[in-house]
UniProtKB/TrEMBL annotation:
Coiled coil: none annotated. The lineage of its organism: Eukaryota, Viridiplantae, Streptophyta, Embryophyta, Bryophyta. Residues 46-351 form the Enoyl-CoA hydratase/isomerase domain. Keywords: Hydrolase. One of its GO terms (biological process) is L-valine catabolic process. It comes from the Eukaryota. Gene3D superfamilies: 2-enoyl-CoA Hydratase, Chain A, domain 1. InterPro entries: ClpP/crotonase-like_dom_sf (IPR029045), ECH_dom (IPR045004), HIBYL-CoA-H (IPR032259). This is 3-hydroxyisobutyryl-CoA hydrolase. Belongs to the enoyl-CoA hydratase/isomerase family.
Length: 398
């Protein structure tokens, strides 16, 4: 959300931005080694640089697997003290999953192995980030959407700038806000209501104070100080005590006062402002009805479990197991292929198909998508490998 009052023009800009962010496509020149670069510096700082600027660092399955390979190697390497994740471009940290390739594969064969492979790779990586034993720092400058939030939002140190743009717009293409965002949202103000608002409406957060308020950011560093921050981390001589060293460096690059950045989210949390309501309804109106119902149920369930130790959904692994089932099922529904066509390919903004009004959907219709089995149109078994020996076996009962 911007510092200014919401307007209908903001909504159209959000839609245009969504079109541009997830258009990666696999025909672009380059390889996974070119797009996910790594280095380990003499002081023990390991660096991942996302370098696919034309696609705003949209992530495909191979990029995600390479990213996790680096993290796994570094976690057991005593020479590595901390991990920094950055982008080669100030336009974007990451615009999320490269959905066009996935949609094309589903259109060609609804049983394609690409769907479970993509979600499996993403969700294993998210669990690894959430449980990482070393300082993990994300520089979230520019567009940070969808899986971009998955790469950053579960890490310990999340640096936002005045150019950071955060959003979870997946309902608009027939998916749902995944990447463990429900786990993050459950900890947001209003017993999770602020995060749920972002999920249901696809609203953008473009104000640093809002990003900190929601919990997506931990530190604000102005864009013109990012280079200095990066140099300080790369040249710090005391990374042997990495946690304190990172805290010290980040604190030294924050402005003394953030008072000049207003807090629209906090101001409107209990507001009856008509414009805020209109913007929320307009955002919801862009979402696929079935996706909205899945989102509402999933986020409410995770929020209710947040303070219940022993409940699987109170831990990131439990949330990701549930989202794997939901992700595979929603991605193989006609809504997804049609949503990608309407928003990202033909760009006519007129999806056809499952256009029943929201009141037509009932929880009973969601149950097949929430169960541990019954993946429509699938006839294979797939194992989701997660930390701590968590294994989900997903198989068709059809």
């Amino acid at each position: 959300m911007s510092r200014n009052r919401p307007s209908s023009s903001n909504l159209s800009q959000n839609q245009v931005l969504f079109q541009g962010c997830l258009e990666g496509g696999e025909n672009m020149a380059g390889s996974v080694q070119d797009w996910v670069k790594s280095s380990v510096l003499p002081n023990g700082l390991a660096v991942i640089t996302l370098d696919r600027p034309k696609a705003l660092n949209a992530m495909n399955a191979d990029m995600t697997a390479m990213y996790k390979k680096y993290l796994d190697e570094w976690e057991s390497d005593s020479k590595v003290r901390a991990v920094l994740v950055e982008s080669s471009s100030s336009r974007a940290f990451s615009a999320g999953m490269d959905v066009k390739g996935v949609a094309a594969a589903v259109k060609g064969d609804v049983k394609t192995s690409m769907v479970p492979t993509v979600f499996n790779n993403e969700y294993k990586l998210i669990c690894a980030i959430a449980r990482y034993k070393k300082p993990y720092i994300s520089l979230m400058d520019g567009v940070t959407m969808g899986f971009g939030i998955g790469l950053s939002g579960h890490g310990r140190f999340r640096v936002v700038t005045e150019k950071t743009m955060l959003a979870m717009p997946e309902n608009g293409i027939g998916l749902f806000p995944d990447v463990g965002f429900a786990h993050i949202a459950a900890k947001s103000p209003g017993q999770g209501s602020v995060g749920a608002y972002m999920a249901m409406t696809g609203a953008r957060v473009t104000n640093p104070a809002d990003a900190l308020y929601v919990g997506l950011g931990t530190h604000f560093v102005p864009t013109d100080k990012l280079s200095s921050l990066q140099e300080a981390l790369r040249n710090h001589n005391s990374l042997d005590n990495a946690w304190e060293a990172v805290e010290e460096v980040l604190a030294g690059h924050q402005p003394l006062s953030g008072g000049h950045y207003p807090r629209p989210l906090k101001e409107h949390e209990h507001s009856d402002d008509d414009l805020v309501g209109e913007r929320a309804l307009a955002g919801i109106g862009k979402g696929a009805p079935f996706s909205l119902c899945v989102t509402k149920h999933h986020f409410a369930t995770v929020a209710a479990a947040a303070n219940s130790p022993g409940n699987d959904l109170s831990e990131i692994e439990g949330v990701m197991k549930t989202e794997f089932r939901l992700g595979v099922r929603t991605a193989t529904r006609p809504d997804f292929v049609e949503g990608v066509r309407a928003v990202l390919v033909d760009k006519d903004q007129k999806p056809i198909g499952s256009l029943q009004p929201l009141k037509m959907w009932r929880h009973l219709m969601l149950k097949p998508y929430l169960r541990r089995s019954n993946i429509p149109s699938m006839n294979w078994r797939f194992h989701l490998q997660l930390p701590n020996d968590c294994v989900v076996v997903v198989r068709s009962c059809w």
